[in-house]
Amino acid sequence: MSNPVDIRKRDSAITVDGVYMVYRVGHMETQALRDVNICLREGEFGAVMGPSGCGKSTLLHLMGGLQSPTRGRVMIGSTNLAGISDAKRTEIRRDKIGFVFQRYNLLSTLTAYDNIALAKEICGKGDEHGFDPKEILSVMGLEHKSHHKPSELSGGEQQRIAIARAIVNRPKILLADEPTGSLDSENSKVILELLQELHQHYGQTILMITHDPEVAGAAGRIIEMRDGRVLDKVENLFYAVEQKHQH
After folding, report:
1. How is the chain split into domains, by residue range?
2. pLDDT (tens digit, 9 = 90+) per residue, 171-224?
3. Does residue 5 or residue 243 have the better pLDDT?
4. 167 to each of 60, 113, 163, 216, 231, how far by Cα in Å?
5. Which letter, b or e, does each residue of 146-176 get, where b requires 16 or more Cβ atoms within 10 Å of its Cβ?
């Protein structure tokens, strides 16, 4: 695990600054997020934990530039997502952010290899950038399944392919929304170990959404949410360790 002092000295990967998110339907308003402030540093593995409906997925969508906040700022590095054009936001998502969803979202007509290769082609940065699809299949332990279509793979294997697709271009940030939500405990363990491996050996910045404390425990930092707010008590395990060392 990274040294907590080192983490604090690193540049910010994602900053959520005073963010509110209000959904309006007719005359009804629902506050999904209320004054949320989070800073995730480069090379950090964070988990946002909380019950269903607490605002976790809304927060992830804002961090990934899929939505814009009602108030406040979401920064990727030094770029304010609200202050740029839709085209530029799409470019940032393509170049800097990898998404992993609970439902895998693989293209059913393509093989495992082709699902990954297509993501590399769409990014259009050439072979020298990121992983070779064969290499990343090997990292996932699935080189023997490269020509299989999603319907021929187990849920755990499909999720590993989805992670491979998300990181093939080595994005700065990996956002994972309930990545073990559809899996049994054995496959969940494999996915969590894989995310830890990506974090420890490749320095991948990861933010994972979960409602499960056991899953959140795989991360180096837990951010707990309730009713659209971040709770103070375990907002940052790294900093808690650092303060302990200083006394």
Report:
1. 4-102+172-246
2. 899 999 999 888 889 989 989 998 998 898 888 999 999 999 999 999 989 999
3. 5
4. 17, 14, 6, 20, 30
5. bebbbeebeebbbbbbbbbbbbbbbbbbbbb
> Domain spanning 4-102+172-246 has what CATH number?
3.40.50.300
Q: pLDDT digits over 71-126, tens only?
A: 999 999 999 998 888 899 988 988 899 999 878 889 999 999 999 999 888 876 55
